[in-house]
Amino acid sequence: MLRTAPILNMYFTLDKNMSSASQKVIIVGATGNLGPHLVSAIDSDPHFQVSILCRDASDCSKIPQHIPVHRVKKYDANDANLVEILTGQDVVISAIGAQAILQQKPIIDAAVKAGVKHFVPSEYGHDTRNERAAQLLPPWFFTHKKQIVEYLQSKEAEGLKWTAFVTGPFFETKAVILKQYADHHWSTTTLSTVALAVKNAISAPVEIVNKYVFVESFNVSQNEILSSVESLTKAKWDVRYHDAEEQRQLASEKLSRRDYSGLPTLMGYVTCVDGYGGDYMQYEKSMNDLLSLPRESLDSALKKMIK
């Protein structure tokens, strides 16, 4: 029902406590769903000098030509070239893909050797500390992400700071409507706001160093999104509702056979069903105001996606 929105050029004045000092930032995973938004946000701010790190096998041809691209054969902490590339960088921002999450470990090791000050792991999405959700999904969605944060925690004594972002599912992601839980609320964030939060956080006050940071564009239900879409399109949508528990069981059975086609259903389940961390603002403090994030309109965000 929903399509990916274009990158939004929305930038806001930072909190007066945020540093104005120029920082060198290198982005890993710049060509995925979130990566281009991160590149745009960092590159558009004169307080940052941005560059890209990618493997030789990756297609980085769409990176703007004025941005330096550093290539390595693989991510290896013993690779002198990787350490040299990271030397002089203040911040590493990772948006590496889900199935490659553990490849961040050698990058972290190389960052420590290079004297990098701050690392932002590819944590964006659900609250990966939730054990119930972790049991339903493949390890790279929750368990491996949590392991990376724990690894970063082990490097704090060596001078490497970290910030992990919990954003809920990206708002532009398609979703299955689960019948029993269509009125349950959950947090979600637009890709442009995730990128803005990261940009503002890497020069933000000490309160968000070595912490999980919780942000959201909206706290919504599936039915609220449907209602807004119908209002914007002035049409009644033919919606197919799915029995949540039945769909969860079918998706889990697929997963046990290494059939990953059921993953969107399981992701929707842990998002919408109480107790799986989807509505994380019930138990965590929002950092929206601290990071000077915009007040967003659900109707406006949807309008950009469906026009």
From TrEMBL:
Record key words, sorted: NADP, Oxidoreductase
**Example of a GO MF term:** oxidoreductase activity
InterPro entries according to UniProt: NAD(P)-bd_dom_sf, NmrA-like, NmrA/Isoflavone_reductase-like, PCBER-like
Does the keyword Heme belong to this entry? Answer: no
Q: Does the keyword Aminoacyl-tRNA synthetase apply?
A: no
- Report the residue ranges that make up the NmrA-like domain in this protein: 22-171
* Superkingdom of the organism of origin: Eukaryota
Q: Name one Pfam family in it.
A: NmrA
Q: Which CDD domains match?
A: PCBER_SDR_a
Please name the SUPFAM superfamilies in this protein's record.
Answer: NAD(P)-binding Rossmann-fold domains (SSF51735)
The record, for PANTHER family, names:
NMRA-LIKE DOMAIN-CONTAINING PROTEIN-RELATED, NMRA-LIKE FAMILY PROTEIN
Q: What is this protein called?
A: NmrA-like domain-containing protein
**What species was this sequence derived from?**
Penicillium patulum (Penicillium griseofulvum)
